[in-house]
Every structure is written in structure tokens, then in C-alpha cells.
From TrEMBL:
GO terms for molecular function: hydrolase activity. PANTHER family: AB HYDROLASE SUPERFAMILY PROTEIN YCLE (PTHR43798:SF31), MONOACYLGLYCEROL LIPASE (PTHR43798). Residues 22-252 form the AB hydrolase-1 domain. This is Alpha/beta hydrolase. Keywords: Hydrolase. It comes from the Bacteria. It holds the Pfam family Abhydrolase_1. Coiled coil: none annotated.
């Protein structure tokens, strides 16, 4: 299995297939690169497809430090430098969107050709002037306590909410295996930081093309979140997946892969 060492005690697991423009898929909180298996198999026919496990997730190092969005972004930069990638497309699902925006804040757009944002808000926190946020402080506090006290029960309730239709037993099983790999200490630390970051003021500074992919089903993230991003990111396009919730790349994988292929192809003209 391929790993790249980015600093002492931290190795990031990744898989890659295909050739051409590199597209890096970045997963959500507690998830892993395995959630992008349908892209690794299909998208690699058209470009260099890379799926990455962030530190503490999936098969990457389970270190107990550095679990902030800012550090994940620094890890992403180190990964890009290690593989000497140029003109990359960054595709971030859920928390992965925050990692992309923090990367752009810290390192700029020189190495980036475009970005893909999958079902995420500009901030997960319900700020006084941002009512569509997912968490207020009492809800976040209770969620973190539940993760500490009975994480499996929390995730058994949470994972099905990511999908419009009921999951098969096999899919539910491998997903639960992936999302329980990390210890609770990492799970709660990551949850807290990703729930309070706020990129609303940064969106207008993004100049490279952005594809916004949102599921119509609003069990977790409202379509209004995508509309807000579309209004504030200058060169953006909003695509709604009518038969999806939080995971259009799994729920409508053929359509998602087609839309993504068209978007990546269009970047040659930018």
C-alpha cells in the first residue's frame, strides 16, 4: 500500500490510478478515501485520480496531534509537494471542503487548476448571522459528549443520514468499519475544530473555477448552503443531484463522474 511521510511519525495513505491531470479527493470528518472507490475505478479512465486519507483517518498514521483543519491543509500541501503535483484539481467532500479552503488561504492557487466542493457549508457553526449552520453550541457540545460516551451508537444513527435511500447491509458494514478506525480522542478533536471554522469571508477571494455538488435531500446539509456558496464564489457552478443526500458521488455515481469529467475537461480553457 502506498504511503508518503510528511513529517516525523506522520504517514499519509493514498491510492492513485490513471494518467493526466491530477484530481485529489479529500474525505469528510471520520471518513476515509474508501468512500471514493467509485471515482478511483471510473474517473481514472480520464485523469490521474488520487484518493487520500488525512492524518488520523483511514489507514494513515493515528497520531494524537495536529487534528485541525489548518494542519490538514498543511498536510495536503506537503503531500502535493512530495508527489510534485502541478495544476491539481482538489475535490473536497464535507470537511474536505474546509481543508481545500484553508489550503487556498495558506498557500494560494498557484498549484491549483480548479476545485470541487461536495455538500458542505461555508461554516458548520450556526453563527448569529448564519442561520443555516449545522450546529449551535449546545448541539455541538452534546454531539462531542456522545462521541466520547457511545460513539458506535452515534455513528449507527449518523451514517444512514448521509444517504437518501436505505443502505445495504454490506455498505453499512464497511462504512462503519471505516468511521470507527480512529480513537474517540481524535474523533472528538476533529469534530470540534471542523465545526467552528468559518470561511464565509474568504469565498470571494477564490478565483479558480469551482464546481459545487449538492444533494437535493436535506437530512444534513441544505441546498441553501450550495446556493450561498454559488452567490459568493465568483467563478462557480452549482449542480444539484436530485436523488442524493450527502454523498452524490456514491448515490448518483455515474452522473457525478460525468459532471466531474466535463468540469475537469473544461479547465483546459481556463
Amino acid at each position: 500500500m502506498p504511503f508518503t511521510k510528511i513529517e516525523d511519525q506522520v504517514e499519509l495513505f493514498y491510492e492513485e490510478r490513471g494518467t493526466g491531470r491530477p484530481v485529489i479527493f479529500i474525505h469528510g470528518v471520520w471518513m476515509s478515501s474508501k468512500f471514493f472507490h467509485k471515482q478511483l475505478s471510473a474517473a481514472s479512465k480520464h485523469y490521474r485520480t488520487i484518493v487520500l486519507d488525512l492524518r488520523g483517518h483511514g489507514s494513515s498514521s493515528m497520531v494524537h496531534h495536529g487534528h485541525t483543519i489548518a494542519q490538514y491543509a498543511r498536510d495536503l500541501n506537503a503531500f502535493i509537494q512530495k508527489l510534485d503535483l502541478k495544476n491539481v484539481v482538489l475535490a473536497g467532500w464535507s470537511m474536505g471542503a474546509f481543508v481545500i479552503w484553508d489550503y487556498l488561504q495558506q498557500f494560494g492557487e498557484n498549484s491549483v487548476k480548479g476545485t470541487v466542493i461536495i455538500d458542505e457549508l461555508a461554516s458548520d457553526f450556526k453563527w448569529p448571522d448564519f442561520s443555516i449552520g449545522a450546529f449551535d453550541l449546545p448541539a455541538l457540545t452534546q454531539f462531542m459528549r456522545d462521541v466520547q460516551n457511545n460513539r458506535r451508537a452515534v455513528l449507527e444513527g449518523f451514517v444512514p443520514l448521509m444517504f437518501k435511500e436505505e443502505l445495504s447491509k454490506d455498505d453499512f458494514s464497511w462504512m462503519m468499519e471505516e468511521v470507527t478506525k480512529m480513537p474517540e480522542s481524535i474523533a472528538s478533536a476533529t469534530l470540534f475544530d471542523q465545526s467552528i471554522v468559518d470561511y464565509r469571508d474568504f469565498l470571494s477571494e477564490i478565483k479558480k473555477p469551482t464546481l459545487l455538488c449538492f444533494g437535493r435531500e436535506e437530512k444534513l446539509i441544505p441546498v441553501a448552503a450550495g446556493e450561498h456558496l454559488h452567490e459568493n464564489i465568483p467563478n462557480s457552478r452549482l449542480e444539484i443531484f436530485e436523488q442524493s443526500c450527502h454523498c452524490p458521488f456514491l448515490e448518483e455515481s455515474e452522473k457525478f463522474n460525468s459532471v466531474l469529467e466535463q468540469f475537469v475537461g473544461s479547465l483546459d480553457d481556463f
